[in-house]
Write a structure and sequence with these properties.
alpha+beta, eight-stranded antiparallel β-sheet, 19 strands, binds fe (ii) ion
Length: 352
């Protein structure tokens, strides 16, 4: 996390994945994001809404209230707030003082998810979203599986560090990611793009394995496979990447077979807990239910392995705190750079 510190500051100047679109409906969804209680719901015409999650009157959770048309009514004394957060009704009085309001958060629904802006509303620009369609989120020609949300008892920086160093695949996921045993031995290459920092490991001439056989049943040879860890910001990392038929003879080029991604959306819940949304995408055999089932099955095995590691580390931080120093080795090609980029961008740590 470079450096490791007990005091956490949230990056505010960006979109965070607040909820998958399917979670936001006509039932109030409470979720704590960047330490703030939020409620999500949909208006009768289908627009996603995010408001502060506690009534400003007596601080009762609004999730325990109910929807009345496009408004939300507190379950304690009946104060009612419209979709902009303005109080529109106080029982027992005719007038509503202007101070009676809850915060309204900008949201954008894209790529199958509802993205929320926790900083100053004026700065909420949808152009700041990562290139979601490029990586298969809500894009034509791609399959997408949204995995169940896991909330980790560990700070979000631990998850970023985890994902940007995929050499850990060879150790904690050796049995759950076929071919993963080879990853740690491949030196990473760091590729800067206009919107990302991609830590790439390229496995060349890999033998087939049960996973690759299921993905590409008509191909019998060796594979070239990218193990990318592409950082778009603290909110989004893509792992996986292109898989190709290995060129059998020197001078020949490999033949692309397809792209398979694990998309990791990282949303701080509190200073020491993190919402972890995983979405798998691929641009081939998009209607094949067996691949979808396999992706869900792999996710259900892989995610608890990472969660266990991160929660174990979080448990040590209180004990060692700022006194602890981390050591940087060759596999850490990406994490320190991503951390430096976060620190260098003041926009990201301003609350408003
Ligand atoms: Fe992992």
């Amino acid at each position: 996390m470079y450096p490791l510190g007990l005091a956490q500051r949230y990056p505010y100047g960006q979109w965070w994945l607040g909820a998958h679109a399917s979670e936001v409906n006509r039932t109030i969804l409470p979720r704590t994001i960047l330490g703030q209680a939020v409620v999500f719901f949909r208006t009768e015409s289908g627009s996603a809404v995010a408001l502060a999650g506690t009534c400003p009157h007596r601080h009762f959770p609004l999730a325990k209230g109910c929807l009345v048309g496009d408004s939300i009514r507190c379950g304690y004394h009946g104060l009612t707030f419209d979709a902009s957060g303005r109080c529109v009704h106080i029982p027992s009085q005719d007038k509503v003082p202007p101070a009676f309001a809850v915060r309204h958060y900008p949201v954008v629904e894209r790529g199958g998810s509802v993205w929320i802006w926790m900083g100053s509303s004026d700065a909420a620009d949808p152009a700041l979203l990562p290139p979601l369609e490029e990586i298969g989120l809500g894009a034509a020609g791609w399959a997408m599986e949204q995995h169940p949300l896991v909330t980790i008892k560990g700070r979000y920086e631990l998850l970023i560090d985890n994902l940007l160093d995929l050499s850990h695949i060879s150790f904690i996921h050796e049995t759950t990611i076929p071919g993963g045993g080879a990853v740690a031995a491949i030196p990473p290459e760091v590729i800067d793009t206009a919107t990302s920092l991609n830590v790439r490991r390229q496995a060349k001439g890999m033998p087939g394995n049960p996973l690759l056989k299921l993905l590409f049943p008509d191909y019998d040879g060796r594979f070239d496979q990218n193990f990318d860890a592409e950082y778009y910001g603290p909110h989004l990392i893509r792992t996986g990447g292109a898989i190709a038929a290995h060129a059998a003879t020197p001078g020949e080029s490999s033949r692309p077979l397809g792209i398979t991604n694990f998309i990791h959306a990282i949303t701080p819940e509190t200073p020491t807990t993190t919402h972890y949304f995983v979405v798998t995408t691929r641009n081939f055999r998009i209607d094949d239910e067996r691949i979808a089932r396999m992706n869900f099955g792999m996710g259900a095995k892989i995610q608890p392995q990472d969660t266990d590691v991160l929660e174990s580390i979080e448990a040590t931080i209180d004990q060692v705190g700022d006194a602890r120093r981390e050591l940087v080795c060759g596999a850490d090609a990406g994490a320190p750079r991503a951390s430096a980029a976060r620190r260098a961008d003041p926009r990201r740590t301003r609350a408003s």
